[in-house]
Amino acid sequence: MPSTHHTKMLILGSGPAGLSAAIYAARAGMMPIVVQGLQPGGQLTITTDVENYPGFADVIQGPWLMEQMTAQAVHVGTSMIWDTIVDVDLSERPFRLTGDGGDVYLAETLVIATGAQAKWLGVPGEQELGGKGVSACATCDGFFYRGKKVVVIGGGNTAVEEALYLTNHSDDVTLIHRRDSLRAEKILQDRLFANPKIKVLWNKQVERFVAGEGVSGLVGVDLIDTVTGAASHEPTDGGFVAIGHSPSTELFKGKLPLDEDGYLQVTPGTSLTAIPGVFAAGDVTDKIYRQAVTAAGMGCMAALDAERFLAEAEYHALVEA
Ligand code: NDP
Question: Can you state the angle between helices 157-166 and 186-194, rounded to 10 degrees?
Fold first, then answer.
């Protein structure tokens, strides 16, 4: 039987942004509900070693970190619900959201922390070698390629920033791009071309990530020239796919302003969206930093912004009564 849940704060998404919002909101007595979505725990549940989340001197595992964050949110009073929201009505408060089983959520405030997904090439070897040479995050995994050869695939700001970042660890970085010019900002291109540790392979599309025979992990990428059709092979220890991300904002198209890449727009320096009472945090609104720790910080901001919003709304209701 579908039921109706009424809450002061509904949080969509259970990654670091959603769970940090929940921890702060629960401790403020808002009894938040977190709708976990299709990937409970978010992107960290599909990574392994994490050594850049502050507070842990030893390497920890992404899934374990998310279990701990979930347990912490529950301990302080968060309700976790397994559901997928299929409809959103933000035209009046309480906001009305509907789950795929028909449950209705009436929310005085809404925190959108639905995250983003890295785009993948979808070529052979990519999935099988994920975490064994293939990655979509140089900041997370670059450290493991100290002194090794790495390639970055893509031609936008992310790809160029990742290539530059990887030169902190590797003296042999190759950027592979499918065209003969980059889409990245000029200042980043200038830095890239000036860096002696980076070479660029133009007009090349990755056809396959190649696993080693008798050695574990990635040993190279098979390439096709997009102009001549010629095949080639580039040996490498690490392959970083940097062809963009897709923020999970499908539900909000036409309801909240999105930028040209589909990210939710917020007032800079806050979590406020265009609708009072609706807040956004984490990768769904951040295409620049995209770190667990920044997402967690933004979740905290959203909870504090929501708390302040409710306090003001309650004060006005009292004054007007
Ligand atoms: P972009 O969409 O800007 O670039 C994606 C790149 O990947 C393009 O060069 C594209 O090639 C290439 N690509 C896409 N699909 C494939 C494919 N199937 N095979 C091979 N190559 C492919 O994504 P970014 O993540 O770089 O940036 C997203 C947004 O975030 C942008 O607005 C960017 O400016 C912003 N950003 C800003 C930063 C900053 O300000 N510091 C840092 C990072 C991102 P092609 O060019 O041929 O289309």
Answer: 30
The two structure tokens encoding residue 252: 């909000």
Instruction: List Cβ neighbours of 175 (8 Å cut-off, separation of 6 or more).
Output: 151, 152, 153, 154, 155, 159, 160, 163, 192, 198, 199, 200, 201
Does ligand 1 come within 6 angstroms of the Cβ of 179? yes
> Would you state the pLDDT for residue 39?
84
Tokens of 27: 């401790």
User: Is the pTM value of this prediction over 0.90?
Assistant: no
Cα 211 to Cα 34, 193, 206, 239, 243: the distances in Å are: 40, 30, 14, 12, 21
Mutate which of 178, 222, 289 for ligand 1 pocket (most atoms within 8 A of beta carbon): 178
Residues of the chain with pLDDT under 50: none
CA 13 – CA 78 distance, rounded (Å): 13
Cα(51) to centroid of ligand 1, in Å? 26
